[in-house]
């Protein structure tokens, strides 16, 4: 399972491989709603954006692919997402590091972005499983993951040390290949409600 580092285009969003030229666009996106202020989220502050992007790009050495999310209607960058922990031999990968400008939330943007990422993994790369991880207390993220159709595999207790020194319990979800047709139908139905 090899994931190509190419753009993924849908009706509402285009996912473009992350580059340093996207710094200003991501700074504007993160200033809309200031999601870095959420204690349980791992979102960079505007002044941390260059380092955040450099680290994301460096992850390509391990097979990670980071994207900026572009709203097709406005052509503005509204957030970022990525594949990470790509396990080629076991045909699985995680999707995460996702955050959006406040104006993009509760729109078709995240639904279609996830659809594009999952289609690429299951239909093109023939993945066996896709994993999602989030802070146990990030109820908005957990709800969004559950709305995709992912199932809770469990909670990794005291899994990570957060920037403020607190310990993060990580909720781990997955979608497996046999579930993908139903998950795709669910996502397509959600998108049809935005037309």
TrEMBL record:
It comes from the Bacteria. Coiled coil: none annotated. Residues 14-151 form the N-acetyltransferase domain. SUPFAM superfamilies: Acyl-CoA N-acyltransferases (Nat). Pfam families: Acetyltransf_3. InterPro entries: Acyl_CoA_acyltransferase, GNAT_dom. This is N-acetyltransferase domain-containing protein. GO terms for molecular function: acyltransferase activity, transferring groups other than amino-acyl groups.
